[in-house]
Amino acid sequence: MYHAKGRGRGRYELFDADLRDDVEERLELATALRRAVGDGELELVYQSRRTCGDRRVTGVEALLRWRHPELGVLSPDVFLPIAERTGRIVELGDWVLRQALADLAELGSAHANLVLAVNVSARQLVSGRLPRTVGRALAETAVAPHRLVLEVSEHAFSDDPAGARQMLQELKELGVVIALDDFGTGWSSLQYVRELPVDVLKVDRSFVADLPGEQSCGAVVASALGLGHGMGLLVVAEGVEDAETLEVLRGMGCDEYQGFIDGEPAGLDAVLSPSFPLTQ
């Protein structure tokens, strides 16, 4: 969840050097994380999602950052595992959902067709409260349900596939869009696509990054496109960093993409600004 999509090519100087291996510091972070929400230390940045053809912005994905008062900006790779272990991941996920929808609502009618993607953790999915939380947040912000995309990794289904499937069905009944994230990284990807009520496939960046010169990666992406389009799904490529990769995706018929080719994740206004970097 909230993958460190801001980390490609070393562009973010995030504090994550040896932190995960230091038990003492992890314990200190766990204590600090308990107060981070109330102290206003969490913030969202956004990455645009665009059409492969004309590179028109169709949506944004909300990405979580923790601006620690002493350590600076912490990578999600550092604090989200801690949140998982301490059980605070549901609270963080709820905060991201509410804040991202509030940010979208503030745009008003200027971007009425823009969709918002929010990552959902395994614990959120099986907590039993997610449909109620989503419904309440949509009502409070007056955002149309079809503008909210909930991104779920297939790894979220490993512990309780039936329960997770039921939660997704309840969410679909609210009118939101369901995306299967990191597609291709799990052994049962095809099974999940067939059985789950998904609308979007997001091809994992590990296959997209080596697409121009790696034949096996091209085969995986082509398979994802064939499967997704055959089922009437939108297919999005993650981790696009250069024009060569984008051109290959265009030729393969990929629908949309996101990645550093359009700059680093930033505030919502900046990402949607006409002057935001657009690499040709």
TrEMBL record:
Entry-linked InterPro entries: Cyclic-di-GMP_PDE-like (IPR050706), EAL_dom (IPR001633), EAL_sf (IPR035919)
SMART domains: EAL
Domain EAL, residue spans: 26-279
One Pfam family of this chain: EAL
CDD domains: EAL
GO terms assigned for molecular function: cyclic-guanylate-specific phosphodiesterase activity
Stated name of the protein: EAL domain-containing protein
Organism: Kineosporia babensis
Taxon lineage: Bacteria, Bacillati, Actinomycetota, Actinomycetes, Kineosporiales
